[in-house]
Amino acid sequence: MASTPEQRVRELRDLIRRADEAYHVDADPIMPDREYDALMSELVALEAEHPELDDPNSPTRRVGGEPIEGFRTVRHTVPMRSIDNTYSEDDVRAWVERVCRLLGTDADDAAADRPGLFATPSADRPRFVCDPKIDGVAMSLRYEQGSLALALTRGDGEKGDDVTHAARTIRSIPLELRGSAPDILEIRGEVFIPRPEFERINADRVEQGLDPFMNPRNACAGTIKQLDPAAIAERRLRFIAHGRGFISDDDFADSHTALMTRIARLGLPTSEHLKTADDADGIVRIIEDFEKTRATLDYDTDGMVVRVDSFAQQDRLGSTSKAPRWAIAFKYAAERKPTRLLDVEFQVGKTGKITPRAVMEPVLLAGSTVRHASLHNFGLIRKKDIRVGDTVLVEKAGEIIPYVVAPVPEDRPPDAEPVIPPDTCPVCGSPVEIETADGGVHNPGDEFDPETETARRCVNPECPAQLREKLVWFVGRNQMDIDGLGEQTIDQILATAGTDDEIPLRGFADIFRLGEHRDALLALDRMGEKKLRNMLEGIERAKGRGLARVLAGLGIRHVGNATARALARVFPDLDALLAAPVQALMPRAFNTMSAADREKIAGSPDKLPEEYETGLGRDTAPIVHAYLHSDAAKKTFDALRAVGVDLTSREYTEPGAADTPDSPFAGKTIVLTGTLESFQRNELKEKLESLGAKVTGSVSKNTDLVIAGEKAGSKLQKAETLGVEVWDEARLLDALGDVRAGRDS
Q: What CATH number does the domain located at 98-331 have?
C-alpha cells in the first residue's frame, strides 16, 4: 500500500488504467467488476479529500464532470471523407481492377508470396486490407504529447462538433497513450453501443415509461450529443479505431496494417477481425467468411471496408471530390422474409410527423424477432398498395431497422382493408398538414395525388407527443434564451410527472409558473439555490423578449427565427397578426399571382403594399394562418398572456417609414468577435440587422466593419491584415446611442 495520499492516488489511477486497457483493448480482464468499482470509489473519495491532486486525465473524469453549455465546431486537420458503397461481388472485382490499373499493375498477375499478415507489400502490386464496417458513429481523436486533446464528430467532413467531453467517458478510449507516441496523433474510429448495453438501456427506458430506442446507432448518435458527461457515461459506449487523420511523424507507419499495430501498442483498441488479401478472390472469401460470423458479435456491422494497405499507394490513387479511390465499402444484403400485416398504428414524432407503423405476426429476421416495422409514409403505402391483412415482405435496413418492402398480391385475402390516413393528430386531435413530393403543403380536404404524399404532420406545437422537444427549443438561446433551464433540467422536471413531487410542465406557459414550485425544483439533481435563482431570473427576463422570440420559440411549422422577425417587423403585436388575412402573410407571393387567384383568396384582385415581406409563400402562409387561428394556438396564446408574456413586437416598423434613420450600420457587412459585456451575440446580431446591417460569421475583403470584444482572436487579426475597420464596445455603444437619439428626435 502507498504511504501518502499522493502515492495512493497515483497507484489507483495506474491500476484502473491498466484494468480499462486489459478489458477494452486486450479483451483480457485482470480484475472482477466488484474490485474495479471498489478501486474507483476509493479514488473518487481521495480526490475529493485532496483537490490539489486533481488531474484532467484521471479515470474518475470518465464518470462525471460538469455539463457543457453547447457544442463548438472545429475544422478537421485532414477531412473525414465518406467511402463509396458497393453491393455485389462483381463491383468489388471491378474496383480491384481499377485500382491495379491506376497503379500500373495487372489485377490478373499471380500474387506474390507474403509470409504473414504484416509482410511488406510489393512495390507495384497492391495488398488489400479488409476490416468489418461497424454501424456506429464516426469520431476523430487527437492526441497531443500522448494526451487526449480533442474528439470531433464527422460533421460535414470538413468540420465536426467538439465532443471531447463525451470521448472522455468512453473507457476504451485512453486518456493518455502508453509508450512513445508522435507529438500529434489523430486516429479515426467508430463509437458504438454494444448489443447487450443497448438491450439494458431499452429495458430501463421501458421501465421508466419512455419509448425504447429504435436501434443502437441512433441511440449512440444521440448519446454523443448529450451535454452532460454523466448521462453519456451511463450508456457505456465503446470505440474501435479504423483509420488516421494527421500524424506529425511521417515515419510512424507506412501502411494501414502497420498503423493498426503501432496504435494498438499505444493502448488504442483495433479490430480483431482485420484481414489482408492479395487479390479480388481473397477479398471475396473474407467477405463471405465474415458474413457467417457477424451475427455472433456483440455489436452491429453492416459491411466490410476494403482498402489498399500501403499509404504510398493510397497517396498515388488519391480521391475524387466525394471519396477516396483507395477504399470501398461492401454492404451486405438485408435478409427478407414474408409475414402477415395485422394492423397499422400511427406514431407522432417530435417534429409532429405522423408515421405509420406496421403491426405484424412475429417473424425471425437477422437474428431477432420482429413484430413492428416502418411503413415510412402514407404516399408509399398507397403507391405500394399495402393493405391490412396482406402478406408482406419485411427486411432490415442496414440490418437494424425493419421495414415493409412490398405486399405479396397473390396472397391477398378478400377482406384485406386499405390503410386510411388520419385527418387529425391521433394524439391531440389537432389539424394535420400534408406535404407532397412537389413541395406542396395541403389540408386533408384538398385535391392532390395521394401517391405523392411524403409526410403528414400535427401542427399543434403543444401536442404531448412533441412536448419535450418543443420545450427544449422554446427555452433555447435563439428563442426565449432562458439561462439555467436546459435540456437536462427539462428532462428532470418532466420525469416528476405522476409522482407526489410533480412539477407541472405541460405547455409553454407552465415554464413561467415554475417559481411556484421552488421546493420541488431544489430537490432536483444538481439544482442549488444559486442555480435556481439564476434560472427563475432568466424566466422572468424571458417574459419581455417580445413577439418575434415567442413566435420563433413555439416551433410553428414554417416559422423559424428569420420568418418570426420578418412577421414582427410587419405586425406590431399578436392581435394585429391574428387580425391579418392570409394574403397579408404572403405579400410577395400574393402580388405575383394572377388577378383571378388574388380575387379567389382575398375577394379582390388588388395588390398589397410593397413595403414589407414576411418570408412566407403561397404554400406555407395558409398553413401558418390556419395554425394561428386553431383552437390549439388560441389556448397557447391565452396561456402565455395569462402568465405575463409580452406579445408586442420589438421590431415593428410603420409601413413606409425608414427602417434605419441615420444608421451608421445600414448596408454594411459586419462581423462580431470576442466577448461583449453589454450584449449577448445573438441579441446584438438581431439589433444590427434591424438597423440595416448584414451580420456574417467570417472576415473577408467584403467585410465593412468588425466589432471586437474581449479575447477577440483570429477574426480580429484577419481584419487588421485586410485593413478592415474595427470598433471596440465603447465605439459601438456610442453609435447605438446616436441612433436612439435620432429616433427620439
A: 3.30.470.30
